[in-house]
Amino acid sequence: MLFRTRRLAAASVAVTAATALVAGCTSGSASTSGASGDTLTLWTHNAGNSVELDVVKKIIKDFNGSQDTYKVKLQAFPQSDYNNSVVAAASARKLPCLLDVDGPNVANWAWGGYLDPIDVTGSEVPVLSQLPSTVGRYDDKLYAFGFYDVSLAFFARKSVLEEHGIRVATMDKPWTKDEFDTALTKLKKSGTFEYPLEMGTGGTGEWWSYAYSPQLQSFGGDLIDRSDYRSASGTLDSKAAVDWATWFQSLVAKDYMAKKSGADPNKDFLAGKSAIQWDGSWNAAKNAEKLGDDLAIIPPVDFENGPKIGGASWQWAMSSTCSNKAGAQEWLKFSRQTKYFAEYAKATSTIPATEAAAQQIADYRPGGKFEVLVEFARKYAMARPATPAYPYISTEFEKAAKDVLAGADPQQALGQAAKDIDSNLKTNNYYSD
User: What digits encode the pLDDT tens for the residues 371-393?
Assistant: First the structure.
């Protein structure tokens, strides 16, 4: 299979430079026969994340000990290097048999020839039992699955909201745009907070699309026309999209939020520097430990088209050049046990991908203090566009949104992004086969 040339959202180094990261690190996707059976190499982005890496190691150890036909060998990369390593290995046709992939990139990697469809029928956990956002499909084929997802939410202190006469929003009655803006006005006028709202504007990369495009979508816009994925013009620069960008810019103009937040926005929120934080469920446990019953977990604002959050996190897949696809799929099937879904969620403070796994975790089962985050993921998650063009789209959206916060005209910034995306689509023949 030919590997198509395309641009990864996280790739900031040329493939030729990235090749050094994988040279000599792997024997490629070829399996090696020996007394212990066929060896399959597995790559993960978790070198700097010991708690999640430990779960991966446990699954590998359990699998290797459960039979003597296959042996899985782990290689972990820092997340900052991971996508570049995959690009370089794909170019050299030295991808491992098993690898993880960020959910929004599944379509791109599948189209690019990096991945093959997988068949995990017969595993303990049926694919249809998972949160839709944890399943990676492209062209109606299953390419990947994840053990967990994350959810965006507003975090606040109930006592602060009550002090300023601000209602704690619920799923039955989320904040409207006017109600949210009024709340921020009250908090700003109190003089207690330099910036009452913390939305992580100091972040980079995929955070921008993950955190802010759901708000754009709640306004009625989107990153691309999803009817055929052939144009961003008229969608990314539509009136609804410009209305979002104008509102987003106003948050900085009114000093409701910083143009570029600090290095640790959650730490600032817990220190009382901000009143309301837009953040991920990965910090829910830390917030609850610090604030106890005073913590309010609040749904996204309904900007007239329903509350929205981003969906999809890291997922597991099989490379197209794997020489032992049967063995790779056996590992994937083996990993699909409820206990592993639960262990991932416990270790990483993420949302279990199945209801059965959630039942094993007190905080996520019905009545648990984080059950609402599971409900957010079920009801509000909107997948980022399942098109091979997505990494490019995400990069252009980040650039446009940053320009807007820096004072650029919203119509011009989004219009230019839409034109650039359309040009990329045309250059790549609309990513058709």
Answer: 999 999 999 999 999 999 999 99
Please report where in the chains the tokens 């982005």 appear, as a residue.
Answer: 45
Count other C-beta atoms under 10 Å from residue 27's C-beta.
13
- If one counts every other C-beta atom within 10 angstroms of the C-beta of residue 396, the result is 24
Cβ proximity of 10 and 83 under 8 Å? yes
Q: Is the pLDDT of residue 139 over 80?
A: yes
As a whole number of Å, the end-to-end CA separation of the chain is 12
Strands (E), 63-182: 70-76, 98-102, 115-116, 135-138, 141-145, 148-149, 152-157
Q: Which residues contact 198 (CB under 8 A, 6 or more apart)?
A: 257, 258, 261, 265, 268, 269, 273, 274, 276, 277, 278, 279
Q: Name the residue type at position 291.
A: L
Angle at 372 between CA 134 and CA 169, to 5 degrees: 125
Return all residues near 226 (Cβ < 8 A) that are at least 6 apart: 385
- Among 30-39, 197-206, 225-234, which is the least confidently predicted range? 30-39
Stated pTM of the model? 0.90
Tell whether the model's pLDDT for residue 134 goes beyond 50: yes
- What CA–CA distance (Å, rounded) separates 232 from 229? 8
pLDDT band at 433; cut points 50, 70, 90:
confident
195/67 Cα distance (integer angstroms): 57
> E-strand spans in 63-102?
70-76, 98-102
- The CA distance from 351 to 149, in Å, is 5
Q: Which two tokens stand for residue 399?
A: 């650039």
